Amino acid sequence: MDIATTPTNPEGNPDLADAAPNPHDPPVIRREDYKPYPWLVPNVRLAFDLGIEKTAVKSTLEIARNPDAEPTSELRLDGDGLTADSVTVDGVEREWTMDGPDLLVTLPGESHTVEIVTTLDPSANTQLMGLYASNGMLCTQCEAEGFRRITFFPDRPDVLSTYSVRMEGSKAQFPILLCNGNREAEGDLQGGAHFAEWHDPWPKPSYLFALVAGDLVANSSTFTTMNGREVELNVWVREEDLPRTDHAMESLKKSMKWDEEVFGREYDLDLFNIVAVSDFNMGAMENKGLNVFNTKYVLADPDTATDGDFDAVEGVIAHEYFHNWSGNRITCRDWFQLSLKEGFTVLRDQLFSQDMQGEAVKRIEDVRILRAAQFPEDAGPLAHPIRPDSYREISNFYTATVYNKGAEVIRMMRSMAGEERFRKGTDLYFDRHDGEAATCEDFVRSIEEGAELDLTRFRRWYRQAGTPTVSVSHRVEGETLKLTLEQAVPATPGQPEKQPMPIPLRVAVHSRRKEAAGSEQLVILEDTKQTFDLPLTGPDPVVSINRGFSAPVIIDRALARQDLVFLAAHDDDPFARYEALQELAVRHLVDAASGELSEPDQVAGQEAIVGALRAILTDQALDDSMRGELMMLPSETYLFEAMAKGTRKADPGAIHEQREALKAALGGSLASELHALYDRTENVAFDDPAGRGARKVKTQVLVLAAASDPTKAAELAAHQYDRADNMTDRQGALMVLCGLEAPEREERLKAFYERYTGNALVIDKWFTMQALSLHPDILAQVGQLAKHPDFTIKNPNRVRSLYMAFAGNPQGFHSSDGAGYRMIADLILELDPINPQTAARFVPALGRWRRIEPGRAALMKAELERISKTDGLSRDTFEQVSRSLDG
Ligand code: B3K
Ligand code: ZN
Fold first, then answer.
1. CA–CA dist 301, 311 (Å, integer)
2. Most buried residue among 16, 110, 381, 829 by CB atoms closer than 10 A?
C-alpha cells in the first residue's frame, strides 16, 4: 500500500480497515503539495568557530520576498535538533518562536538581514548528517536535509544562494580548512588559531554546502579545460593513505575530459577538491567544488584493492564529478525530482565506464546490479515510481529505483533517439535550465524537443512503478517472421491499474540452420499487444530480443532449450549471449527448486547447461573478462524473484540446494576444461593487458571446483592465495576458502588479518568474506565476528561489511529457524538510535516476506512487527517497516 493513499480494502480485511493514520506518526510529504518558498535568500554568510566538541556557527542571511510565491510575513526556517543562541533582524535582537524543530520569525518588510547563532557538538553527531567528527577531523554531509542540523535555514533544494564562509580553528588540530568554491583569504590568529575565507560564486541549494577541517595531505595536479583554463585538483587524505590516491586522481582527470568530449560540459571553478573520510553513510557526495568521499571510493592500490574496487573508484569519482552539471548547475526543484539528477548521472557514469572498461562487460554488470537490487524493490512493498509521489523520510528514497531504473529510463530515450539526437536533447536541457532548480518534466520536455521524439506516453515510466513483463511469441509467414509482443505492468502498492508503457526492444532474427546473425532493429512496443514483421535470414529462426538490455523489463519467452544453447554460443550481441545462458540456468533451477522437473528433464537441463558452458570455456575468440561474466550463475536473489511468480513463492532453501548442485555438476563435468583454463591463466602477470580477465576466470574456476571437489579446491585456493601479488587473486582465493571446512581456511584468514591489521578498508573485506561465505556455521560465525574487537557499530562501512554482507547471504539470512532474520532485526533496533539512515537500509531484506514460502514469511513478518512495536523509532525506520508490513 502506498503510504499516501487510503487503503483499498476489497476483502473487508479488518487489519486494513483499522489502518487509520496515527497523529504521532511522522507526516507524509506529497509531491502534489509543492509550493515555492515565500522568500529568496540570494546571499548567505557563515562564520564557523570550529571545535570537535563545540562549534559555533553564525549565519547571516540576506532575505527578500519571492515575487512568485504567496506573500506572508512569517519566515519559517528548518531546524533539526538545534536551539538558537540569538536571532537578530537588520541588526536588532528579535523574538522568535519554535514550531517543533523549526524557527519562526516575523518579517514585516520586503527584504531583511537575519543573523542566527547556533552551537553544535560535532563529536556527539553519530547520525553523520550535518557537521560531525571523524578520526579527529570535522566534515559535513548535508544532502538531503543535513544543513538544518548546522543552522536554521530554508533547507530545500529550490532555494539557491551564494555562500561566503569564514572558518576559524586550531591550526595544530585543523591545519587544512576547506569549503566550497575558491579560497579568498587565509591567515594566522592569536592563540594558535588560524582562519580561511571561501567564496562560491555559483548559487547553490544548502544540500551542496560542505566544509572539512583536519590534518590532511593532498595528491595535487592540474587539468586544462577545453577552453584552456587551468584547474587545480586535489585529493585530500590522511598522510598514510597518500600512496593510494593516484588512481583516484587519474579517474578524475579522465572524467573531466570525457564530460567535455561526450556531453560538452566544462568545469566551472579554478579548484576541485576531493576529501576521503572513513565515517560516511554512503559512497560519496557531490558538494560544489568539494566532493566528500567514503575512503572506499578513493583509496586503491593493487595490494589492497581488487580490480572491481579500482572500477568502483573510477565510477564513483566520475559520478560525483558529473553531478557538477547534472545536479549542481541544474539541481532539483524538490526531492521528488531526485531521479532528475541521480538517474541522469548514473547513466552518465555508466556510459563513461563503458568507454573506459569495455561496453559488453560493463553492461552485464549494470544489469546484474539492476536485477539484484531494483527488480526485487519493484516487486515488493517498497515499490515506487522513479519519481515518487510521497515520502515521510527522503533518505529512504535514495533507492535502486530512483538511481538505476532512473538511468535505464533515460537510456531508453537515448536508444530511441540515437546518440546524436540524444545529445541535442541534453544540450537543450543544459542550456535551458542552467542555474535552475528543475523537474523531471523539464528534462523530458528538453529531450522531446531537442531529440525530436514524442514522449507523451513514455512519461508513464516516471509515474508507474513495477517491472513490466513482455511475453514473446512468433510465427513464420513466407519470408516474414511475425513477432507478437504483449506487455503487462504489475500492480504495485497504491497503483492497482497500469497503462501500457512504450518499451524499446532491440531485436534480431537469427537462423539456427545457417548459424547466421540477423540484422538488428529497434521495435517499440507502445500498446498492450502488438505484432511486428521482421525479415527472415534463413530456416529455423531464433529470435534474439532485448539485446543490450535495451529496456528494463522481464522477457517471458518459451524458447526451446536448444535455441537458448544456440544463442549462448552464437549470438553476435554479447549481452544476448549472456542472457541466453542465464535463462537456461534460471529455468532449470527454478523448475528444479519447485519440484517440477521429471528425472529425464533434470538430466537434459543439466546437460544443456554443461554443453553451453563448455562452448564458452573453449571459445578461443572470447576474451577472459567476458568469459568470466558468462561463467557466473544467476544469483540466489535473482532466482527468488524468478521463482516467486503468480501464486508460487520463493523457497530459499530449495534454490540454494539446487544452485549448489548445479555448480557441483558443472565443476565435475567440466573439470578438465576448467583446469586447462586455470593453467592457461595462472601465470599471466598482474600488469599484462590480459591480466584482468585472467584473474576473473581463475576465481570462477575455484568457485565451481569448490562445489565439485572441495578438497582439491581448498588446495588450489590456498596455492592461489600464497602466490598472489595482488588483492584480486588474494580475495578471490580467500572468498572460496571461507566457504570450505578445510584447515587452509583458518590459516589464510589469520594470515590475511595479520597482514592488513590497521587498514580499515581491507579489514572490512575480512569481515565481508566471512559473512558472505557458504560455511555451514555461518550464523555462529557472524555472531562471533560482531564481538570481534575490530567490530564497531559506529562506523557504517564496518556495519555494512558484516551485516549487509550477511543479509545478502541467503544461506545464513534465510536460515529456516529464523535466526538470520532475528539477527538483522536486532541490528536494526540497536543501530536505529545511533544512525537511523544506515539502520533503515536493512529493512528491505526483511520486507520481502510476501514472496517467500509461508514458514519463513511468518518469521520475517514477526521480526518486522517486533521492530514496529518498539517505541521511539526514527522516521527512517518507521517508514520502511510500516510500508513493509502494509504494502
Ligand atoms: N547525492 C549523494 C547521495 C546523498 C544521499 C543522502 N542520503 C551521492 C550521489 O548520489 O552522488
Ligand atoms: Zn548521485
1. 12
2. 381
Q: For residue 310, is it within any domain?
A: no
Residues 155 and 57 in one domain: yes
Using CA atoms, how far residue 357 sits from 308, 363, 697, in Å, is 11, 10, 17
Sign for the CA dihedral angle at 410, 412, 417, 423 comes to: positive
Catalytic member of 145, 320, 393, 879: 320
680 and 565 part of one domain: yes
Query: pLDDT band for position 238 (50/70/90)?
Result: very high
The last residue of a domain, from among 521, 551, 581 = 551
Q: Are residues 528 and 660 in the same domain?
A: no
- Ligand 1 midpoint to CA 563 (Å): 43
Mean pLDDT, rounded, of the chain: 96
Q: How far apart are CA 778 and CA 503, in angstroms?
A: 43
Please indicate, yes or no, if residue 805 is contained in any of the structural domains. Answer: no
Task: Count how many domains the chain has.
Answer: 4
CATH code for the domain of 670: 1.25.50.10
CATH of the domain at 162: 2.60.40.1730
Together in a domain, 195 and 76: yes
- 125 and 58 share one domain: yes
Q: What is the per-residue pLDDT for 513?
A: 86
Smallest-distance ligand from the CA of 835: 1
Q: Domain ends where: 665, 681, 708?
A: 708
What is the share, in percent, of the chain residues with pLDDT greater than 70? 97
DSSP 8-state symbol, 619? -
Q: For residues 60 and 201, state if they share a domain.
A: yes
Strands 271-277 and 290-294: parallel
How far is ligand 2, taken at its centre, from the CA of residue 349, in Å? 10
Tell me, what's the pLDDT at 23? 72
Is 442 in the same domain as 527? no
Task: Over range 725-739, report the average pLDDT.
Answer: 98
Is position 794 within any domain?
no
Domain region containing 668: 557-708
State whether the beta carbon of 259 lies less than 6 angstroms from ligand 1: no
Mean pLDDT, range 639-665, rounded to an integer: 96
Residue 357's pLDDT band (cuts 50, 70, 90): very high
Whether 143 lines ligand 1, by a CB cut-off of 6 Å, is: yes
Residue 394 falls inside a structural domain: yes
Burial of residue 109 (CB within 10 Å: 0-12, 13-18, 19+) is exposed
Q: How far apart are CA 502 and CA 523, in angstroms?
A: 10
Q: How confident is the model at residue 887 (pLDDT cuts 50, 70, 90)?
A: confident
Looking from the CA of residue 395, the nearest atom of ligand 1 is: 7
Residue 57 burial (10 A CB sphere; 0-12, 13-18, 19+): buried
Catalytic residue flag (residue 636): no
Give CA–CA dist 274/298, Å, rounded: 9
Ligand 2 centre from 285 Cα, in Å? 7
Mean pLDDT value of segment 604-620? 96
- Taking residues 649-671, what's their average pLDDT? 97
**pTM higher than the cut 0.90:** yes
Residue 527's domain is classified under what CATH number? Answer: 2.60.40.1840
Q: 144 in ligand 1 pocket by Cβ < 6 Å?
A: yes
Question: 506 and 564 in one domain?
Answer: no
